[in-house]
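Following up on my earlier thread - several people asked me to post the actual chain instead of describing it. Fair enough. Here it is, all 146 residues.
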Amino acid sequence: MTLILYLSYITYRYPLVDTVDGIPVRNLVWDKTRGKHVRRSRARDRGRFIRGPIPLEWLIAVTQLRGKAAVLVALAICYAVGVRGAHRDISVSNELVGIFGLSRYAKRRALEQMATAGLIILKQEGKSAPRVTIVFKRDRLTRRPV
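Reply from S.P.:
Thanks for posting it. Predicted structure:
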């Protein structure tokens, strides 16, 4: 019933017009609080998330390291991989690990543990944020950490 009233209102108010103020009629909805038609919201705020796939063997190997900082740094790296879209030369900044509640000192210890275990290749140049490359299981057999 409301749809029929809505369509009749639109055709009465704007006969033979498929746009209202430049907005297509199909993208308009009635806002009760404002008392007028407004643009339909298409985008949703989905928040931040870790994009997959995350190599399970790699993540299990990270959980075997001492402390929880290594796991949180690994999750931060996976988050950065999803944002950047590449597994090489990922910048692990203090701001990035701060999302997970880690200090720069815990980040450094965890990155060194992961590099020693052969899970990542760690590159540190001066005082800039360390850059890492994820080393997957098949690569760990042939590569050694730098």
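The chain is about 40% helix and 15% strand. That should answer part of your original question.
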